[in-house]
Backbone:
C-alpha cells in the first residue's frame, strides 16, 4: 500500500492546505478505507472561510469532508461483516456512548457524537481514512462510489421528509433549490408526494429542480413579501401545501414557509441561518402549524441504498464538477462561487470513474 496519504486540512479561516499525513491503523471495530469519492458540502466551505459554524469552532487543524465513499483495504480484528475489497458508503456520525438518544434510535442528537469534519473531529477528504465498521455500508454493484458519497446529502432529505410526514398524495413546498432542496425533492417524490413546488432566487437551479421532477417552480426575488409569496404558492398549486421543507435558513423564507403551509400542516426547518429569527409564530400557533427542526439524520443509509439500487431515486445529475484530490483548492473555490450543484473530489489516482 502506498504510504502517501494526501489530506485536505483547514488550519484557520481562509487557510486550506493539502498535507501528507500518516496512513492510520484501524482499531478492532474499525476498517481502513481507500477513499474514492468525496463531495464538498457548504459546511466544509464555511469552516474554510469563517473557521466556525455556530458553536462549532475550528481551534486546531481539521480535516474536512463528510460526504464519502471508498473501498475497504484493511479490516479491524473484531469486524465480521466487511472484507477487504468491499465498496462502502460512510455514515459520518458515530455515537460515542450508549446514551438515551442512542437507545431511542435518535443517535444524531447525542451531544457526544463523533461527526466527520465538525470540530474537533477530523473528516475524510484524504487518500486513506479509518472509520467505525458499523457505520460503513456495503454498496450494491449497481450503485457507484459517487452515488455512495451522495447518500450523505440524500440522508438529510430522507430525514427532513420523515420529519415532515411526507406520504402518498402529499403536496409539498420546498424552499431553496440547492443540493439539500434538490435531494428533498427527489425523496418527497419517491415517498409519494403528488405535487412538489420548489422556490429559489436562481432560475438555473429551478431548471435543475424541474429536470429532477418538480411539478411547479417559483422564482423568488429579493424583497418579495412573504405573505405575497405564500399566496403565489397557493395560486400555482390550487391548494396550500400539507408541509413545507425550508432549506435556505433565510428569515423571509421561514416566514413564507409558515404563511404558505395549510392549517394543521408541518414546517420543517433544514437550512441554518442566523441564531435568532423573527417569524409569525402566532399565525402558526392559531392554525396549528407544527414547526420541526432537523439535525443531520439517523437510520437513513439502508433506505437510501435501497432507493438508489432500485432506481427509485437518481442522484447522478447532482454531480456537476469533478476534481482530482490534488486540485482540492480549486474544487473548494468552485463550490464557494456557487457554480453548479455538487462538486466531487476523486481520491483514488488509479480509478477516477464515478
Residues:
Amino acid at each position: 500500500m502506498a504510504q502517501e496519504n494526501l489530506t485536505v486540512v483547514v488550519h484557520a479561516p481562509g487557510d486550506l492546505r493539502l498535507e501528507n499525513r500518516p496512513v492510520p491503523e484501524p482499531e478492532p471495530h474499525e476498517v481502513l478505507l481507500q477513499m474514492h469519492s468525496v463531495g464538498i458540502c457548504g459546511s466544509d466551505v464555511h469552516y474554510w472561510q469563517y473557521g466556525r459554524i455556530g458553536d462549532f469552532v475550528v481551534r486546531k487543524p481539521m480535516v474536512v469532508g463528510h460526504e464519502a465513499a471508498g473501498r475497504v483495504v484493511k479490516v479491524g480484528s473484531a469486524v465480521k461483516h466487511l472484507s477487504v475489497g468491499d465498496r462502502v458508503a460512510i455514515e459520518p456520525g458515530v455515537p460515542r456512548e450508549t446514551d438515551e438518544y442512542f437507545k431511542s434510535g435518535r443517535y444524531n442528537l447525542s451531544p457526544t457524537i463523533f461527526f466527520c469534519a465538525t470540530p474537533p473531529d477530523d473528516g475524510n477528504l484524504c487518500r486513506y481514512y479509518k472509520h467505525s465498521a458499523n457505520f460503513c455500508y456495503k454498496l450494491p454493484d449497481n450503485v457507484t462510489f459517487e452515488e455512495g458519497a451522495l447518500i450523505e446529502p440524500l440522508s438529510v432529505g430522507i430525514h427532513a421528509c420523515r420529519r415532515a410526514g411526507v406520504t402518498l398524495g402529499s403536496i409539498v413546498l420546498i424552499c431553496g433549490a440547492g443540493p439539500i432542496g434538490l435531494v428533498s425533492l427527489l425523496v418527497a417524490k419517491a415517498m409519494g408526494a403528488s405535487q412538489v413546488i420548489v422556490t429559489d432566487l436562481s432560475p438555473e437551479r429551478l431548471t435543475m429542480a424541474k429536470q429532477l421532477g418538480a411539478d411547479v417552480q417559483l422564482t423568488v426575488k429579493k424583497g418579495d413579501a412573504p405573505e405575497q409569496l405564500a399566496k403565489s404558492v397557493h395560486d400555482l398549486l390550487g391548494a396550500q401545501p400539507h408541509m413545507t421543507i425550508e432549506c435556505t435558513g433565510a428569515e423571509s423564507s421561514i416566514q413564507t414557509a409558515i404563511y404558505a403551509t395549510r392549517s394543521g400542516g408541518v414546517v420543517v426547518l433544514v437550512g441554518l441561518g442566523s441564531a435568532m429569527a423573527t417569524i409569525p409564530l402566532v399565525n402558526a400557533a392559531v392554525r396549528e402549524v407544527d414547526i420541526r427542526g432537523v439535525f443531520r439524520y439517523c437510520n437513513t443509509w439502508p433506505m437510501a441504498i435501497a432507493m438508489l439500487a432500485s432506481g427509485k431515486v437518481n442522484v447522478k445529475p447532482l454531480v456537476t464538477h469533478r476534481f482530482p484530490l490534488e486540485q482540492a483548492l480549486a474544487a473548494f473555490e468552485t463550490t464557494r462561487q456557487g457554480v453548479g450543484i455538487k462538486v466531487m473530489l476523486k481520491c483514488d489516482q488509479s480509478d477516477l470513474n464515478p
